[in-house]
Design brief:
Layout: E1 4-8, H1 15-22, E2 40-45, H2 49-58, E3 63-64, E4 67-72, H3 87-95, E5 99-106, H4 121-154, H5 157-174, H6 186-192, E6 204-210, H7 220-229, E7 235-239, H8 241-248, H9 253-263, H10 269-280, E8 283-289, E9 294-300, H11 305-312, H12 314-318, E10 323-326, H13 328-334, H14 337-342, E11 346-349
């Protein structure tokens, strides 16, 4: 799946620190605003303890987790939609992502100045949203103008319908709303809106980057974000970026577990963030397990068995006859493929079978 998730936020909020916690590609971190002028791109392993459980049964040569591409975008500044800071580059890169992780600064640090002069994550959400909304409004208005010309010159009925659909987006964006809040028929969306790659149409996770002592329960800053978004469908996660960067730098798994336990955490917050991003991209996994490898294959939710087979190899999709399926829980409970067969837990599925996670 060639889908990517973008990490966005104002400059100096800890985006790159969090990126480095999860990426095999390490990026430079600086205390200076706008020190990063280009996007950092990394391939992230999706944490999934089920792979380890399967490996205990089949004893594979290697474990291959699912992956997702993460892009750490340059820090945003007020006026980005008008080209301030690295605004044009930032907004163009955001357009090429499929979902967003919005990192919010929820910690005090006298040695790290906030670009707006104070710590206020609610204000920062509104500021970033405004810049994205302005950009989206420009894109929508340009397309409406093109359709109006077509409607006038050729009496194009399709153009008139497009104007009607896009006018809803213009109204919402013009009133500081986000495109993702608009309920629209999928066919109308695909015909008139999808090609615009609207920034505020992308699903978003909010990550409150807190200080070390707030890693478990958050703080007043993160609570303000949760209060703001409590009536929305938005997911809000608390992550102590600096703490988790220290954990990620440890070579030993045992040392990491001790560090996590001392911090009162059962798992890194960034692991929850990655899984949430994977889910937000409408992705899920199915597993293959054998002597060579235990592997998580990435598919879109709702894919049929032939489509899922095609992710492994196109020939499997073209020549698909049937799939023999074991449920993960059955495999772990019964302990082997043969035991699953004896208990009637091996299922033969045809071309219409929708693959499950």
């Amino acid at each position: 799946m060639s889908l990517k998730c973008g990490i966005i936020g104002l400059t100096n909020v800890g985006k790159t620190t969090i990126f480095n916690c999860i990426s095999k590609t390490k990026a430079d971190v600086s205390n200076f605003a706008f020190s990063n002028t280009t996007s950092n791109i990394g391939i992230i392993d999706v944490p999934d303890p089920r792979l380890n459980e399967l490996d205990k049964i089949v004893h594979s040569a290697k474990i291959v987790p699912a992956t997702v591409e993460i892009v750490d975008l340059p820090g945003l500044a007020k006026g980005a939609s008008k080209g301030e800071g690295f605004g044009n580059k930032f907004l163009a890169d955001v357009q090429q992502t499929d979902a967003l992780i919005h990192v919010l600064r929820c910690f005090d640090d006298d040695n790290l100045a906030h670009v707006e002069g104070s710590i206020d994550p609610v204000r920062d959400i509104e500021l970033v949203d405004f810049e994205l909304q302005v950009r989206d409004l420009e894109l929508v208005e340009r397309k409406i103008q093109r359709l109006e010309k077509a409607a006038k010159s050729a009496g194009d009925k399709d153009a008139k319908q497009g104007i009607e659909v896009l006018s809803k987006y213009r109204d919402v964006l013009g009133n500081l709303g986000n495109a993702r809040s608009i309920d629209i028929d999928k066919d109308m969306y695909d015909r008139y809106v999808k090609d615009l790659l609207l920034l505020t149409d992308k699903p978003v996770i909010y990550v409150c980057n807190v200080d070390d002592k707030s890693a478990v329960n958050g703080n007043a800053y993160s609570q303000a974000v949760m209060d703001l978004l409590k009536d929305s469908d938005a997911l809000v996660l608390v992550v102590a970026g600096k703490l988790e960067a220290e954990i990620a730098d440890l070579d030993s798994v045992e040392d990491r577990e001790v560090f996590l336990e001392d911090a009162g955490l059962t798992e890194p917050g960034v692991d929850r963030m990655i899984r949430a991003a994977y889910d937000m991209l409408n992705l899920m996994s199915f597993f293959t397990a054998g002597p060579k490898e235990v592997k998580a294959w990435t598919i879109k939710k709702g894919m049929t068995a032939p489509q899922a087979a095609g992710v492994i190899h196109s020939d499997l999709e073209r020549g698909f006859i049937r799939a023999e399926v074991l449920k993960y829980n059955d495999m772990v409970e019964l302990g082997s493929e043969s035991a699953c067969k004896e208990k009637g837990k091996l299922f033969v599925e045809g071309k219409t079978y929708v693959v499950q996670d």
